[in-house]
């Protein structure tokens, strides 16, 4: 496969409702999309999950764009007509860090090459299911609003798992309310986004009585020792998120006793190939699930394909498009009876709707031009 065109699109999608965590509040989703064209006539799409300001990680949208322009795309083009996602992944090891930028380009390459092979991403990765259960993540909000939101998603929409964001002072009370509302058997988990310290261990232990699936990322990203110590005091399993950026990180965290569950986000670990490696190596050691980062329909469809692998046994952050967007840039990802169908079309299985994409696009940059891309840039 040979690359003949590369274009960036910066898109802006308003959220249906603000999404508040212990770290930030999002009112809209800004994303960097990559469109590739190949000499074989294929188009591939990738989505970078880096946030505009780098609050979530050291990467930002602009830093990702910079490393893509200056290093990752030129390295890929140097492969000539031997370009594959696997070959690109190998040369990307020459660039330290920047997993979200790498993941975005890898996704676009996978989409193009699998369309050329007439193979779906799910089949390529080794999916074992035709549909995956949908889980919903609920931000921090007033108690009455939280009650009605959870009621809506569980009883009306029939999501298979509820996750709520927590922070010091907003933890035991909302969990108690949700347990009373949903009963003892509903899968419920919480996410601290690193807002707690070991000094909060007694407070976090109060959550043990509510039979949670897990406490996700209670302590700071770099505090593996603290997580291992906290795990000794809690009955509720700890799940790590942000510290897991590679298979080696995952094995290290498991070996230290810092985590009993892994949240795998393709953008955070450098792409779907590394995510599959973590699945294959760690899936028989601890339970796994696929996390989300408010992806558009492009990244959401690819995440659903990943979640269909055998060892992703826990319900992930895989929700319908309508959970976040009035209008997605693809045909909506939909849920039926709490399940989302795994895409079966070639590549990631979806593509942008031209009208929706144009409406969401705020800027376009042609890195390597085909005539069609140059015309798009002028328009």
UniProtKB/TrEMBL annotation:
Entry's Gene Ontology molecular function annotations: metal ion binding; O-succinylbenzoate synthase activity; racemase and epimerase activity
Domain Mandelate racemase/muconate lactonizing enzyme C-terminal: 143-237
Pfam name, any one: MR_MLE_N
CC cofactor: a divalent metal cation
GO biological process: menaquinone biosynthetic process
Superkingdom of the source species: Bacteria
Keyword list, A-Z: Lyase, Magnesium, Metal-binding
Enzyme Commission designation: 4.2.1.113
Keyword Magnesium included in the entry's annotation: yes
Protein name: o-succinylbenzoate synthase
Organism: Actinoplanes italicus
């Amino acid at each position: 496969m040979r690359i003949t065109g590369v274009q960036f699109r910066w898109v802006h999608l308003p959220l249906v409702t603000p999404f508040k965590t212990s770290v930030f509040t999002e009112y809209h989703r800004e994303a960097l999309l990559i469109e590739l064209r190949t000499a074989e006539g294929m188009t591939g799409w990738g989505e970078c999950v880096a946030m505009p300001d780098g609050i979530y990680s050291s990467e930002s949208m602009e830093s990702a764009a910079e490393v893509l322009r200056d290093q990752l795309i030129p390295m890929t083009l140097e492969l000539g007509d031997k370009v594959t996602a696997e070959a690109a992944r190998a040369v990307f090891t020459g660039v330290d860090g920047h997993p979200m930028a790498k993941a975005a380009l890898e996704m676009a390459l996978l989409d193009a090459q699998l369309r050329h092979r007439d193979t779906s991403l799910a089949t390529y990765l080794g999916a074992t299911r035709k549909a995956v259960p949908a889980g919903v993540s609920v931000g921090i909000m007033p108690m009455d609003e939280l009650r009605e939101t959870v009621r809506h998603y569980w009883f009306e929409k029939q999501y298979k798992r509820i996750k709520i964001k927590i922070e010091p002072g907003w933890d035991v009370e909302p969990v108690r309310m949700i347990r009373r509302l949903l009963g003892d058997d509903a899968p419920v988990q919480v996410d601290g986004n690193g807002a707690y310290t070991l000094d909060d261990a007694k407070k976090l232990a109060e959550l043990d009585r509510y039979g949670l699936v897990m406490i996700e990322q209670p302590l700071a990203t770099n505090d593996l020792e603290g997580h291992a110590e906290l795990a000794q005091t809690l009955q509720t399993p700890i799940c790590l998120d942000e510290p897991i950026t590679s298979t080696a990180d995952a094995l290290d965290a498991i070996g230290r006793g810092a985590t009993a569950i892994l949240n795998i986000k393709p953008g955070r670990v450098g792409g779907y190939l590394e995510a599959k490696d973590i699945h294959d190596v760690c899936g028989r050691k601890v339970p796994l699930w696929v996390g989300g980062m408010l992806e558009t329909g492009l990244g959401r469809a690819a995440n659903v394909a990943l979640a269909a692998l055998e060892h992703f046994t826990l319900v992930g952050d895989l929700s319908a498009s309508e959970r976040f967007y009035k209008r997605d840039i693809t045909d909506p990802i939909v849920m039926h009876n709490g399940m989302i169908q795994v895409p079966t079309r070639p590549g990631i299985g979806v593509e942008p709707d031209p009208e929706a994409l144009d409406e969401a696009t705020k800027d376009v940059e042609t890195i390597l031009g085909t005539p069609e891309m140059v015309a798009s840039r002028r328009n």
